[in-house]
Design brief:
The chain is α/β, with parallel strands linked by helices. Helices cover 36% and strands 22% of the residues. It is globular and about 75 Å long. Bound molecules: glutamine.
């Protein structure tokens, strides 16, 4: 039987519940335990694939093709292992399942109710995952904030499960500092615990998020008023580097207290390699400027995986990447001046037409000026369009995503993908193998001719143009397993590589993705 950790959040959203949970999971994993993360989201979308990244942050793509909450990115980056679509429960997914069962007649004439039918489904889901993964510990992160109507279903399932199995409940809250009185304030935490109590839940451990470390008096108050042991009040102050969070929580004894509450033993904590990497990150031997030329510039979370992949590479290479997100619409208006001080450029994935010509200009600028460029998915498509327009002389080359009736559809939906219009089912999603050309730059970077990366796109480089591209010096250095689709492109250049995949999704703190590592390295080498 697995042990359960439930993580809830109070006071505010956006406190870093995912990071905190991933950090605790990491500490326990370092003690030899097999930890499986589950995330529950209250919204009614079946998955976040259809949500605007500006509203929801990045959609994280899993190896099995799942499109999930970006907290799964933290889990993968911290734990160094693949997660599964099933591990992200949304209200939408759960209700859909229950309604399907009802239509199947599985409830034998009963009135189907939130309790027990929906909560039973949630508990069954949790338990099935625990069993399938042969987990020692399952850490269930409940999205949202206590008091939201949306996550009540998951909180009620948690209450029931806590009566049935061995578990520990961690509640994460905000402890604000009130400047006028010069004091940390614990009242919001007390109130959020009250709300939990009203739902029949009593946390064992409280983690206080604050600007500075929790002071003695705050710890005492939280312990007294929220009814938790003093040593179970854990401080989680702001940090400049998210990879320090597990180290800080370790110093606070978060893992020790979790194990104590569960009443189980584990090996010694072993975070030495992690600590060394964090230290290396804090003392980089050089810095480089990276321009991330996309369109979602209003929200920091839209390109999390790319930024983290660059940081991972940087930690291992001793390079600090200073990343600036540049709206390519501004390049359309003002030209490429803004790129001049950049050591390397990334054109990330994207959808739709806004800022497209700016991306094409960016690709041209990098190609002509020998500036390292990594094109991700949409980025590769833009590189191909640019090459056909400016090198192969096909001036009106375009993608049908941008101009449906273009005479030269050099990027288009292939027949297998056309005509499916149900959202979610239309994309090439998840991990796909690619064959890399012997001795190509990418094969040398990966050190292999057979690799697997994750995809999330509808359009492909039109195979009718492959020969023209290659005759003009662009190398299709990686293809799909069947040899038909262009997966990687490159030219003879310092670094000018495009990939139809999203290698950022497989980058881990302890094991950076080779393409990002090589890209970052190239920004320093002439
Ligand atoms: N919009 C492009 C496509 O669907 C690229 C998608 C992406 O960059 N993830 O093919």
């Amino acid at each position: 039987m697995p042990e359960w950790i439930f993580v809830t959040g109070g006071v505010l959203s956006g406190l870093g519940k995912g990071l905190t949970s991933a950090s605790i999971a990491k500490l326990l994993q370092s003690r030899g335990l097999k930890v499986t993360p589950i995330k529950c989201d209250g919204y009614l979308n079946v998955d976040p694939g259809t949500m605007n990244p500006i509203e929801h942050g990045e959609v994280f793509v899993q190896d099995d093709g799942g499109e999930v909450d970006m907290d799964f990115g933290h889990y993968e980056r911290f734990l160094g292992k693949n997660t599964k679509f099933r591990w992200n429960l949304t209200s939408g997914k759960v209700f859909k399942k229950v309604i399907e069962k009802e239509r199947n007649g599985d409830f034998l004439g009963k009135t189907v109710q939130m309790i027990p039918h929906v909560t039973d489904e949630v508990k069954k889901w949790f338990r099935d995952i625990a069993e399938e993964e042969e987990s020692d510990i399952v850490i269930v992160e409940i999205g949202g904030t206590v008091g939201d109507m949306e996550n009540q279903l998951f909180l009620e399932a948690t209450r029931q499960l806590r009566n049935e199995e061995n578990s520990v409940h961690i509640h994460l809250t905000l402890v604000p500092y009130l400047e006028t009185v010069g004091e940390q304030k614990t009242k919001p935490t007390q109130h959020s615990v009250k709300q939990l109590r009203a739902l029949g839940l009593k946390p064992d451990i409280i983690i206080g998020r604050s600007e500075e470390k929790l002071d003695k008096s705050s710890r005492e108050k939280i312990s007294l008023f929220c009814d938790v042991k003093k040593e179970n009040v854990i401080s989680n102050p702001n940090v400049d580097n998210i990879y320090r969070v597990p180290l800080i929580l370790g110093e606070e004894g978060a893992d020790v207290q979790v194990l104590k509450e569960l009443g189980i033993d584990a090996e010694e904590r072993n975070m030495e390699k992690w600590r060394e990497l964090v230290e290396k990150m804090n003392k980089p031997s050089s810095r480089v400027k990276i321009g991330l030329c996309g369109k979602y510039t209003d929200m920091d979370d839209s390109y999390v995986s790319i930024e983290e992949a660059l940081k991972h590479a940087g930690a291992h290479l001793g390079i600090k990447p200073d990343i600036e997100i540049i709206d390519t619409e501004s390049i359309e208006e003002n030209g490429t001046e803004v790129l001049k001080d950049k050591d390397g450029i990334i054109i990330p994935g994207g959808f739709g037409t806004r800022g497209v010509e700016g991306k094409i200009k960016t690709a041209k600028y990098c190609r002509e000026n020998n500036i390292p460029l990594l094109g991700i998915c949409f980025g590769l498509q833009m590189m191909v369009i640019e090459y056909l327009r400016n090198v192969c002389g096909i001036e009106n080359a375009n993608s049908t995503e941008i101009d449906e009736g273009t005479e030269n559809p050099v990027v288009k939906q292939l027949p297998e993908q056309e005509g499916i219009d149900k959202k979610g089912g239309t994309m090439r999603l998840g991990g796909f193998e690619a064959k890399l050309k012997n001795n190509s730059q990418v094969a040398n970077i990966y050190g292999s001719e057979k690799i697997k990366e994750r995809h999330r796109h509808r359009y492909e480089v039109n195979p009718d143009y492959h020969d023209l591209l290659e005759d003009n010096g662009l190398i299709i250095s990686g293809t799909s397993k069947d040899g038909l689709l262009a997966e990687f492109i490159e030219i003879d250049h310092r670094f000018y590589i495009g990939t139809q995949a999203h290698p950022e999704f497989t980058s881990r703190f302890e094991k950076p993705n080779p393409i990002y590592r090589s890209f970052l390295q190239s920004t320093k080498e002439w």
